[in-house]
TrEMBL record:
Its cofactor is pyridoxal 5'-phosphate. This is LL-diaminopimelate aminotransferase. It comes from Pegethrix bostrychoides GSE-TBD4-15B. Belongs to the class-I pyridoxal-phosphate-dependent aminotransferase family. LL-diaminopimelate aminotransferase subfamily. InterPro entries: Aminotransferase_I/II_large, DapL/ALD1, PyrdxlP-dep_Trfase, PyrdxlP-dep_Trfase_major, PyrdxlP-dep_Trfase_small. Residues 35-405 form the Aminotransferase class I/classII large domain. Its EC number is 2.6.1.83. It is an enzyme of class 2 (transferase). The gene is dapL. SUPFAM superfamilies: PLP-dependent transferases (SSF53383). GO terms for molecular function: L,L-diaminopimelate aminotransferase activity; pyridoxal phosphate binding.
Amino acid sequence: MATINDNYLKLKAGYLFPEIGRRVSAFAAEHPEAKLIRLGIGDVTEPLPAACRSAMIKAVNEMGDRETFQGYGPEQGFGWLREKIAAHDFQARGCEIDASEIFISDGSKCDCGNILDIFGDNNSIAVTDPVYPVYVDTNVMAGHTGEVNEKGEYAGLVYLPISAENDFTAEIPSQKVDLIYLCFPNNPTGATATKEHLKAWVDYAKANGSVIFFDAAYEAYIQDPALPHSIYEIEGARDCAIEFRSFSKNAGFTGTRCAFTVVPKSLTAKAKDGSDIQIWQLWNRRQATKFNGVSYIVQRGAEAVYSEAGKSQIRALIDFYMENARIIREQLTTAGIAVYGGINAPYVWVKTPQGLSSWDFFDKLLHSVHVVGTPGAGFGAAGEGYFRISAFNSRENVNEAMRRIVQKLMA
Ligand code: MLT
C-alpha cells in the first residue's frame, strides 16, 4: 500500500493566501455587486517594463529562427544574465560575489523551500514571528518540526518574536541554532535591518557554524541609502549566508517568473562524519538534477532590468508603489491607527483598532468596505492584533480603499 508524507498532515488547514482567497471568493459569490479591492497578497498590478517586454519579444523571434533557436539552457542560468546580476546587484555595492555563485530560478518561494533538500534533518531552525509562512511550512513538510499548537506554533522551531517593542528586528538568540531565516525589507512587517543588525547576525552565525537564509526579495524598495541591500555587504557573510532575490517585486515578474539565489563558494556545512562540505557544490548538483532552468525568453527579459532604460522604468514602478505605501500610511494615521513599515518596503503593518483580532478585522474590512488585506495572525502567533496592507495596486484602488476604510473607522 502506498503511503504519504505524513508531515503534510501537520500543516495548518490552508496556506495563508489560499485561505484568504477562499473567504474572499465565498464573499464575492454572495455579494456579486460588491466592488472588491485586493490589498492582501503582495502581487504586482502594473504592466511589465517596456525594456523587459521588448527584450522578450526579440527573444521570442530568435526562438522562431533555426540559427538563433535555443533548446535546454544551462540549469544554473545563462552566463550573460548571471554576469549582469553579479556586476550590478553585488560588485557595484562592494560585495564580493562572482557570477558563478548566482543560480537563476523561477522564484524565491520555490528556492526557499528547495534549499532544504541539501541541509540535514537535524538542524535547529529559527524563524521570526511573524514570518513569511513559506519558511515554516516547508520545514513542516520536510519533517523538521513536531505538531502545531493552538497558537499556530510548531514544536521544534525556535520562534524569535518581532514587535513594535524591538523595532520588528529579532534579538540574537541566546541558544545555538543552525539555520536562521531573515527577511529584509521584511515581509510582513515592512521593517528594515541596519548594517549593525546584520553584522550581529553574521557574527553569531560564524561563531555557531550556522547558515543564514537571507530573503532580500524586497531590496529594491529600500529608500534610505544607509541601509544594506544584500547581506554580502557585511564582512564575513560569504562564509555563512545564502541570499534569495527575485525579479517579481522590482520588475513585476510575479506572473513571468524569474529569481535567483546566491550561494557563495566559501560557504560550508558539516557532513555526518564531521567533514566540511561546500554548499555551492550540493546546490549545483541539486539544480542540475531537479531543474531545467528558466526559459531563454524570460531570462532575456530579466537581463533588460539592468539596461539603462530598464533601470529607469523599474525606478518608476517602485516609486509608484512607494507612493501608494505613503498614501496608506498617511490615511490610516489620520484615522488614528498605528502603522509600521511602508517606508522602505511595499507593506504597511497596521495595529488592528479596538483590540480586534486580526481575522476579525479582516472580516470587518471585507464585509463592511469590501477591502481585502492580510491578517497578521496568518504570519504567526505574534502577528495577532496586526494586519498587513499591501501597496501593490493601482493608485485609484489604493485611494478608494483608503477612503472607504477611513470613513468606516472614523464613523
Ligand atoms: C505575500 O503577499 O506575502 C507575497 O505574495 C509572498 C510571495 O511573493 O510569495
